Amino acid sequence: MTTGTLITVAPTGAESAKAEVPALPVTLDELLLTAKECEALGAAVIHVHIRDDDARPTLDGGRLRETVAALRESTDLVVQLSSGGAVTDPEAARLAVLDAGPDMASCTMGTLNFGDDIFLNRWEFIVDLHTRMQERGIVPEYEIFDLGHLTALQRLLGKYGLPHGGHVHVDFVMGVPGGMPGTTQALVAAHQALRDLPEGATFSATGVGRSGIPVMLASLSAGGHLRVGMEDTVTYAKGQPVESNMQLVARAVGFAQLAQRPPLTTAAARDLLGIRR
Ligand code: KMH
Ligand code: ZN
């Protein structure tokens, strides 16, 4: 059955520098403004990376807690904290992200080359993240950068059981140099592999950089959901830098409406993902 479209906004990420991308929201005020405007346009989930006073990525616990509280106060968005952080973040700090008590957290399902860096996600670390989220009632979004990550997820669920809430939701992060390409063919392959996961598993997809539009169209046509935002896309069209996250959310909403799969409300998103507020 085709449903409406779950739209996640990933407004900041850990990779772009504020000096190079001045429109990037890096302060709490900037993040809250972006969150409110994206929610008004049709986003239901926010995938959050935060920055320090110098606009550098941070996993500071106090700031994360303040951010979760502020987002809950000003919006009804599902708050998903990144446990991926930046490629330089140590495992302990990534696990401690859960202490901020978000509705959801990301959980990347394997190690990969990440451009010139390595995004390290050891099996034992993944198990730790998954089981701690089960214990604390946090719903994971499993980040799938490559096909083998779905095999790892199947193994994880088989050995350690379903996530909190019982629903499995994954995000195909496509087009990272070192991961699967952002193509229709790769999305179809990943979608096929979803059949090995528990019945009813859902997926979102995001294409990094130029692969954003083809991945969005492929995901909508395959019954998938969308993640957009300046974490993944800083160029709107050739020679045209992204002006704001709202521009990207508005485009995703337009595509979803064209596909006759309008954006899910935040309440419907909670139902889909198995989240209780
Ligand atoms: N910044 C990347 C190394 C996540 O948020 O969980 C990892 C990332 C995935 O963005
Ligand atoms: Zn992220």
UniProtKB/TrEMBL annotation:
Keyword annotations = Metal-binding, Transferase, Zinc
Pfam families attached here?
A: BKACE (PF05853)
Database matches in Gene3D superfamilies: Aldolase class I (3.20.20.70)
What are the required cofactors? Zn(2+)
SUPFAM superfamilies assigned to the protein according to its UniProt record, in alphabetical order:
FMN-linked oxidoreductases
- Superkingdom to which the source organism belongs: Bacteria
Asked if Acetylation is a keyword of the record, the answer is: no
Under the heading PANTHER family, the entry gives: 3-KETO-5-AMINOHEXANOATE CLEAVAGE ENZYME, 3-KETO-5-AMINOHEXANOATE CLEAVAGE ENZYME-RELATED
The protein here is known as 3-keto-5-aminohexanoate cleavage protein
